[in-house]
């Protein structure tokens, strides 16, 4: 029974991907199941944020609901962003050399620095470190922050959203360390581990500056 449910759910997603907006009646007709069954599947898909609906007014009678994929629904279909990104970077490296590659990563670092500095300005040591951890966590790094003593934190990142890039181009990791050093005005930062080098997580020791 579960296999059938899963299959019907996938069929509905595929139909909406190919045909865009569809009514319950049209989906029921194409799937050869009842409208009640279609609505049950759509209710689950809406709850999961994969589809939504728009009311379409008719010349006569009630408006009808027309269903389409959300952005999250679109993302359930195969994408190859990582490979495309790596191919672009490889082409840029061949065309412009190492200097141009470094400029790209430094430009990204500069954008993040401006963004983070606005959030961390005029903060105490603890507020800065906690704020940085929050920003990184919101950006998908799965951050764990451990306070070692009154002057020291250990920031661990268990996920790297750009891991494929970092494995190929170590400049990405260098820029992250440089970013932390720039935005933490009250602290010194030392890298203690890096997933791109085979470690279980990226680790940074963040110590309050003396004086």
UniProtKB/TrEMBL annotation:
Q: Which domain of life is it from?
A: Bacteria
Phosphoprotein among keywords: no
Species lineage: Bacteria, Bacillati, Bacillota, Bacilli, Bacillales
User: What is the protein name given in its UniProt record?
Assistant: Predicted transcriptional regulator, ArsR family
Query: Does DNA-binding appear among the keywords?
Result: yes
Keywords, A to Z?
A: DNA-binding
In Pfam terms, one family for this protein is: HTH_20
A molecular function annotated in GO for this UniProt entry is: DNA-binding transcription factor activity
């Amino acid at each position: 029974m579960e296999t059938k449910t899963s299959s019907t759910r996938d069929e509905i997603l595929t139909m909406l991907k190919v045909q865009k907006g569809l009514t319950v009646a049209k989906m029921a007709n194409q799937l050869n199941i009842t409208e009640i069954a279609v609505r049950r599947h759509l209710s689950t898909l809406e709850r999961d944020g994969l589809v939504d609906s728009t009311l379409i007014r008719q010349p006569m009678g009630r408006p009808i609901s027309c269903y389409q994929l959300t952005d999250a629904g679109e993302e359930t279909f195969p994408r190859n962003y990582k490979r495309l990104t790596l191919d672009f970077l490889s082409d840029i490296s061949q065309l412009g050399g190492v200097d141009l590659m470094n400029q790209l990563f430094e430009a990204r670092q500069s954008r993040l620095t401006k963004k983070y500095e606005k959030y961390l300005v005029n903060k105490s040591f603890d507020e800065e470190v906690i704020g940085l951890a929050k920003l990184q966590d919101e950006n998908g790094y799965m951050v764990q922050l451990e306070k070692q003593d009154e002057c020291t934190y250990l920031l661990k990142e268990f996920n790297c959203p750009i891991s494929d890039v970092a494995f190929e181009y170590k400049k990405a990791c260098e820029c992250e360390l440089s970013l932390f050093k720039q935005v933490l005005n009250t602290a010194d930062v030392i890298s203690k581990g890096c997933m791109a080098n085979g470690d279980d997580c990226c680790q940074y020791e963040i110590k309050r500056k003396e004086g």
